[in-house]
Amino acid sequence: MISELSRSSLKEAIACALYQCRAKTLALFEGVDKTTLCHQAHPDFSPIGWHLGHIAFTESFWLLERCAGLQCLFPQYRQLFAADGLPKMERVKLPSLEEILYYLESVREKVLDYLEVADLEQQGRLWNFLLQHECQHNETISFVLALTRMEERDKRDKEDGGDKVVFLYQSAINKHTSPMTPVSISLSSEMLHVPAGEFEMGSDSIVALDNERTSHIVHLEDYWIDRYPVTCAQYRVFMEAKGYENPDWWSPAGWKWLQTAQVTQPLYWSCDPAWDNHPVCGVSWYEAEAYSRFVGKRLPTEAEWEKAASWDPKAHHRRTYPWDDVEPTFEYCNCDNVEGQTTPVNAYPTGQSAYGMYDALGNVWEWTASWFHAYPGFQSYPYIGYSRIYFDNQHRVLKGGSWATRPWALRSSFRNWYYPSVRQIFAGFRCAAN
Description:
α8 (252-261) packs across α9 (285-294). The chain has helices spanning 4-27, 34-38, 48-67, 78-81, 97-115, 120-160, 232-240, 252-261, 285-294, 302-310; strands spanning 191-194, 197-201, 216-220, 223-226, 311-312, 317-318, 365-371, 396-399, 416-418, 427-428, 432-433. The chain is of the alpha+beta class. The longest helix has 41 residues, at 120-160.
């Protein structure tokens, strides 16, 4: 049983995390106008204003209605902000930012009141889920803002009659005006050897989402994995070798995708050599697979990635984070929108794993070769549709998080998933080999 003191401390910790995360959410909307608030930058993603209202709706639904037994505070928003209420294309007719902020504040006030009497022995997992839910929508807001700015840039270029290639990563709160100075080190195709053996995959922690459970033992044969994510300089070699024109490097499905997509470079790309040591970003799974073939390697499986990132072979136990169990800060990785852009892949030596893998968490999400599927003993939580409907052999797993990922949603066991054709995300990759 949780003692009264520990129960009080736990509630204080949850309230503090909710407050900190909300402050970061609101910072993303500083200076956002009505057009940007309601704009759908891509068919796959809702306007940023919808995500803000959805955060309030989800908290209200699960904590105030389902747990506290209260009536819906704003019934007029139920259809608009529910995940299954309207198609994404119909989510552009939104209230003003002031109205959505009032909705958010009103719900949060009731939520904190309820926290005082909530049974965290029964609900602790739900509160952690909702905190991470807001984190995930923060990240979606960040890359929708990036897409919106890319649209604006392209429009300006057309009006100017130019054909410029400009790198655009900056988030709404980015204070930097230029890339970090690259660390002066030669990044070759250095690989790490991971010996054969068992490791613990997944997590049963109270913060673990349903698809991370249950923790289980996996045996892997020995393999090699890149010390760093693939950099822009390395990927440029593939581009200059006409990799986008040669079907030899592409799987049949990837080549078919390429003929439709008609792309010749990653989504977020710059010709400026200042970005050479930064991870390539904005690539689909098919592009990552093609590059891997080009260099005679392959993409790592999810298990291979997670073992290299989290397993401590000397202590024979799983680490929550590559560096240990100390929570993520900017000392260990590029996360939490602090930089608002990528950083060189070797910028965080204190964040490397026991095997010596750099940049496993933060900076860019990393594609793996694995399909998103259920672990042994999987049980849906808090509702069937959160993960289960995506166990369809159509979504590839991404690991590691990005520069926009909040610390509460950043750990080695965390699993992200997207269609292999998607490139409107902060996704890169690293390679593996037998």
